[in-house]
From TrEMBL, chain A:
Residues 5-243 form the ABC transporter domain. This is ABC-2 type transport system ATP-binding protein. The keyword Oxidoreductase does not apply. The keyword Nucleotide-binding applies. Keywords: ATP-binding, Nucleotide-binding, Transport. It comes from the Bacteria. SUPFAM superfamilies: P-loop containing nucleoside triphosphate hydrolases (SSF52540). PROSITE patterns: ABC_TRANSPORTER_2 (PS50893). Pfam families: ABC_tran (PF00005). Belongs to the ABC transporter superfamily. InterPro entries: AAA+_ATPase, ABC_transporter-like_ATP-bd, ABC_transporter_ATP-binding, P-loop_NTPase. One of its GO terms (molecular function) is ATP hydrolysis activity.
From TrEMBL, chain B:
It is a multi-pass membrane protein. GO terms for cellular component: membrane. The keyword Transmembrane helix applies. One of its GO terms (molecular function) is ABC-type transporter activity. This is ABC-2 type transport system permease protein. Residues 54-239 form the ABC-2 type transporter transmembrane domain. InterPro entries: ABC2_TM, Nod_factor_ABC_transporter.
Length: 324, 257
């Protein structure tokens, strides 16, 4: 597959103005994104996602390392590289609120050097695709946040670039518009074979849209893996164990100490322990706790795990997520 | 061709926004008219009666040029600040055309629109004072166009500084009085101002309009000085702008306000 975005060992530090302290935002990050791939770029606040995205867009210069967009070095051939990439960086703030929907689209298309004829055709197409026809002559100021977000994404799609970066594309949207946008993103990636990087805190969206995910924490890449592989890996170690009797207080204490992320739901009907094991063999230690006081296990089931849990586990660093 | 598309697009945006903010635009025009009235009645009541006509004509041209320079040059500084606040500045930086080209087309668009307003102000001032200046467009328009190049240069310097120093508003407020000084003080009193941007051009236009001169009646050295002044300020402006852009990209200042 063609590499559309290549990030090679980028580093970025900032100097704090008041304390003159050097802060490392990004430390030796490398990854590639291929044609038609949807990549989720995740991480807690302050992890270095935004700095990475801005460096890919050429809005921020790395201290070292290189970024290529369709083979063009963004640092050396910035304007040529920008012909292949577009972005929604600040959602609805990327728009001119005193212009109408159509005027915004026309203005941004003109700013990319498109002719009037090209602009008219492309704007009409996007207004249709994003179902904005009824709103095309309304000022952006008067639109709902969802509509504004739709328009911001439509603006990013104007130039038919090969790579699109979307920062929090579904933030604060209602269910209907969020669904509509997810469908559009799927179409753009799969049918038009465009490369998309999504930075989001909305884990169900990442799980649904992304083929692969990169998790950044403290400026470095913690995980670079396909979403389905991550889910499988964690799924195999997540268990729901039904017990025939309650755990004693001493057993519960041992469970808390040995398996801090486990949960025990004591109940007269069916006590259950839910646990996510770091290593598969840890299950023997768990069984030792039950066996110590003769607690009988009724059943053991693998539990389904959502991407949010996977993300939390990885970021907390409380799991051995190294892929086999 | 892409330049033309860019110019059309930015001119249209400036025009639409000016129309949408029409009350603001008209209020600004009225402000300049009131300033002219202040100068005019000052000349009527306390000025030297023997040089009444010359003084009124001088003040008409000076007020018109002051408003034109101020609205064109300060515009770009405020424009960058507003874009940074709105969050659209980074989006402009995603354009493969380059922001300096976008800014240039905006300045040209703004200059064209402000020129129309200034013609209205000029006629209003002439009508009020009863002093009719020789507009002489064949002579004045080329001089104004060359003068505008130096204004573009200064505008780029302001835009560059606005990118890295977001609290530039205070400076822009003071800057309008600096512009006033540059436009109102005649070169005969302060010849060193020939090195300042656009002063030579304003002085030439004033001479043409007050003395009804043609293009060939002005010394060629004046044109040479004007062209050199404009070229130097344009180059300086672009250098400052690009340098400021580089600093902003190194320090991550484009998206900050």
């Amino acid at each position: 597959m063609d590499k559309i975005i290549e990030v090679q060992g980028i580093n970025k530090t900032f100097l704090k103005r008041k304390t003159k302290e050097t802060v490392t935002a990004v430390k030796d990050i490398s990854f590639d994104v291929h044609r038609g791939e949807v990549l989720g770029l995740l991480g807690p606040n302050g992890a270095g996602k935004t700095s990475t995205i801005k460096m890919i867009c050429g809005l921020l210069q790395p201290n070292s390392g290189a970024i290529y967009i369709n083979g063009l070095d963004i640092r050396k051939k910035r304007l040529k590289a920008l012909r292949h990439i577009s972005a929604v960086l600040e959602g609805n703030r990327n728009l001119y609120w005193r212009l109408t929907v159509r005027e915004n689209l026309e203005y941004f298309a003109g700013n990319r050097g498109l002719s009037r004829k090209e602009i008219a055709a492309r704007v009409d197409q996007l207004i249709g695709q994003f179902r904005l026809k009824e709103k095309e002559n309304e000022l952006v100021n008067g639109l709902s946040r969802g509509m504004q977000q739709k328009l911001a994404i439509a603006v990013a799609l104007l130039a038919e670039t090969q790579a699109i970066l979307l920062d929090e594309p579904t933030l604060g949207l209602d269910v209907e518009i969020s669904y509509e946008l997810r469908e559009i993103i799927k179409t753009v990636a799969k049918e038009e074979q465009r490369t998309i990087i999504i930075s989001s805190h909305d884990m169900p969206v990442v799980q649904e849209l992304c083929d692969r995910t990169i998790i950044i924490n403290k400026g470095t890449v913690v995980v670079d893996e396909k979403v389905e592989n991550l889910l499988k890996l964690f799924e195999t170690r997540a268990y729901s164990i039904k017990l025939c009797s309650e755990l004693s207080p001493s057993q519960q204490k041992k469970l808390d100490v040995s398996f801090p992320l486990s949960t025990y739901k004591g109940s007269f009907r069916q006590p259950v322990v839910e646990v996510n094991l770091e290593r598969s063999e840890d299950i023997y230690d768990l069984f030792d706790i039950f066996k110590a006081e003769g607690t009988v296990v009724e059943s053991i089931d693998r539990t389904s795990i959502d991407f949010e849990q996977v993300f939390m586990e990885i970021v907390k660093g409380e799991n051995n997520y190294a892929m086999a | 061709m892409q330049w033309l598309n860019l110019l059309t697009s930015n001119f249209r945006k400036e025009y639409i926004e000016m129309k949408r903010y029409l009350p603001n635009t008209l209020a600004l025009l009225l402000t300049f008219y009131i300033i002219f009235l202040g100068a005019f009645f000052g000349i009527v009541f306390i000025g030297d009666p023997s040089s009444f006509e010359a003084n009124v004509q001088y003040s008409i041209i000076s007020v018109v040029f002051w408003s034109l320079t101020m609205m064109t040059m300060n515009f770009i500084g405020f424009s960058v600040i507003t874009e940074a606040m709105r969050g659209t500045l980074e989006q402009l930086y995603m354009s493969p055309m380059g922001v300096w080209k976008i800014m240039l087309t905006r300045i040209v668009g703004q200059f064209a629109l402000q020129s129309v307003l200034m013609v209205i102000l000029l006629f209003a001032a002439m009508l009020t004072s009863g002093q009719w200046l020789s507009l002489n467009p064949v002579t004045t328009i080329p001089i104004i166009l060359v003068t505008m190049v130096s204004m573009v240069g200064v505008s780029f310097m302001i835009a560059g500084l606005a990118i890295i120093v977001k609290q530039i508003q205070a400076f822009l407020q003071i800057f309008q009085f600096v512009l006033m000084g540059l436009v109102f003080v005649p070169l005969s009193i302060a010849p060193f101002l020939v090195f300042a941007p656009f002063v030579k051009g304003v002085n030439m236009v004033r001479t043409v309009m007050m003395e009804n001169l043609t293009l060939t009646q002005l010394p060629w050295t004046d044109y040479g000085i004007l062209a050199a002044n404009s070229a130097i300020y344009l180059v300086l402006g672009l250098i400052v702008f690009h340098r400021c852009e580089k600093i902003a990209m190194q320090k991550g200042l484009l998206g900050q306000y």
